Description:
The protein has helices at 2-15, 119-131, 141-149, 151-180, 183-191, 207-210, 214-222, 229-237; strands at residues 21-26, 29-38, 49-56, 74-75, 78-79, 84-89. The protein is an alpha+beta fold. A 4-stranded antiparallel β-sheet has the order 1-2-3-6. A hairpin with a 2-residue loop joins strand 4 and strand 5 (78-79). The longest helix is centred in the C-terminal third of the chain and has 30 residues, at 151-180.
Amino acid sequence: MASKRILKELKDLQKDPPTSYSAGPVAEDMFHWQATFMGPPDSPYAGGVFLVSLHFSVDYPFRRPKGSLGLDVYNHGHNYGVSIASVKFRTKIFHPNITSDGSIFLDILHEAWGPEVTISEVLSSICYLLAYPNLDDPLELDIAHMYKSDRSKYEATARSWTKKLQFEKKTFIFVCQYVFEDANAARLLWSSSTAPDVARCRRPHHAAAATRCPDVRKMARYWSGHETGSRVWASVLGPGRRAD
């Protein structure tokens, strides 16, 4: 039942794709999706690209799993059972409603949840939250305080985070695309990164410069233990070469 409902919602998204985000299954696993959000214009996140992972329970969308599942979606440290088992930002973001580990709280996933709620509505709620933070129920109290007391500082900090992470992402994706000649493979490789701070480049490189950049070499070394990343290592640095 759950897989049929998820498949129907996927087809609905594909039939009428939104302009502010895209979403779909990871490696054809209907219970694990990845969404890509564009930073809202006229916000400190403008120009940013933010990856969010969604895991669905086998009971979706009807019965709520028990809170003992250790859900990533929570409110002030309290777990609530929901039919979507977790929603988590994979991209670092400076936001009062999103924690440093990517956890996020949305009313629509808790007390406002019902079987009629769709994945599209959840994703649209995330878009709205990026544009309009909820200061009545923040997860990051210090960031919420900064937003209220010094809006200019908050926006400058959020804009700086967004700019820095996008430089790193563009550089990494450029190298992967140069190696694989496949932008989708590059994005997939980036999205599976558990160490996004490995890269410190300030701009994307051309292919020739990428082979000489110490930060790109550092990225290649980091990914040398990754099944796909080992190809980056071999192609950018050459087989058997070190990035010391």
